[in-house]
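tool=predict chain=A
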Amino acid sequence: MALKKLIIQSNGIPTEYHRIYDIENVVNKQTIIRVYSYVNEEERERDKNKPKYSIQTDTVYIAESEEEIDYDDTLTVDDAYEYLKTLEKYSGAIDV
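tool=predict ok
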């Protein structure tokens, strides 16, 4: 699962494919949702299919961002995507 919405990064690069990379819980303090943003879905596929242990001269652009929320050790990935869609940054995003 991922979200599709055009977001221009602070460096001017447009990204339209956003996936949750990680959900981290800092016990009794906070939950952090890490999002990787790609130029498009094809770039995500290229990143997913690249060899794990090889020298890559052609890198995939990934913009990483974090959203911090109150501690929630029951947060599922699906719930995290639903939460992201409530934020202005991802408002109007569609599930892909």
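The first helix runs from residue 41 to 49. Residues 3-50+57-95 form one domain.
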